[in-house]
């Protein structure tokens, strides 16, 4: 059994780590978003703050845990950080569009819309992260 688990982890470890980090990133995003909207911050600004803080977490966790990037030279970290945030900015646009349509135009349930939004964003972010760190 241990050998099977080791083989599976070797084959799918990166995807598993990405899912764990993605889950934590999503949880951070959702908690911050709903905490801020709960204190009457408009959904747009709550989403921008939640995005920034969750992307900061995701950058660090993806670099170290998921993709095992060990180059910590300031110029490399800066370049990766700019790329990471820029590509995640593209997912922020999708994120904002989904929230706008779901919340403003369709008057959907905030939790349902945010969860759908995060599923789409996770997929986009995996593609972007793989491009940066691989």
From TrEMBL:
Biological process (GO), any one: polysaccharide biosynthetic process
Keywords on record: Membrane, Transmembrane, Transmembrane helix
GO terms for cellular component: plasma membrane
Entry's family note: Belongs to the GtrA family.
Pfam families listed in its UniProt record: GtrA_DPMS_TM (PF04138)
Membrane topology annotation: Multi-pass membrane protein
TM regions (residue ranges): 15-36, 42-61, 82-105
PANTHER family: CELL WALL TEICHOIC ACID GLYCOSYLATION PROTEIN GTCA, PROPHAGE BACTOPRENOL-LINKED GLUCOSE TRANSLOCASE HOMOLOG
Main location: membrane
Species: Secundilactobacillus pentosiphilus
InterPro entries for the chain: GtrA_CellWall_Glycosyl, GtrA_DPMS_TM
Domain named GtrA/DPMS transmembrane: residues: 17-132
Subcellular location: Membrane
Name of the protein in its database record: Cell wall teichoic acid glycosylation protein
Organism domain of life: Bacteria
